[in-house]
Amino acid sequence: MAGNEDLIQFEQLFWRVSRKIQYLRKKKFNDRLSDSQTYILVKLATEGPQKVSGLAESIGITPGGVTSNSDKLIASGYAERKRDEEDRRVVSGYGDLYY
């Protein structure tokens, strides 16, 4: 039974943390960014340039989804795309959220 109680407590805590993150994101961006877009900005700000395939794998969406979300971030002015001259698969994004 202790395992079930731990699981229930974990689920409740996870839900509260998730709701708090959503609240803070909506407060900062007036609900203009999706969860995926926010996560892309966080990954780029904390880990630097990323390959689209790497971002897709870590976020759990398709590479096309990363490209689509990145295009929206760029169009909204939250990020910019810079190509790595040595490896064109690497895209750098810079957002103002975490700097």
Automatic annotation (TrEMBL):
Residues 33-91 form the HTH marR-type domain. InterPro entries: HTH_MarR-typ (IPR000835), MarR/SlyA-like (IPR039422), WH-like_DNA-bd_sf (IPR036388), WH_DNA-bd_sf (IPR036390). Keywords: DNA-binding. SUPFAM superfamilies: Winged helix' DNA-binding domain. GO terms for biological process: response to stress. GO terms for molecular function: DNA binding; DNA-binding transcription factor activity. Gene3D superfamilies: Winged helix-like DNA-binding domain superfamily/Winged helix DNA-binding domain. PANTHER family: HTH-TYPE TRANSCRIPTIONAL REPRESSOR YETL, TRANSCRIPTIONAL REGULATOR, MARR FAMILY. This is Transcriptional regulator. The lineage of its organism: Bacteria, Bacillati, Bacillota, Bacilli, Bacillales.
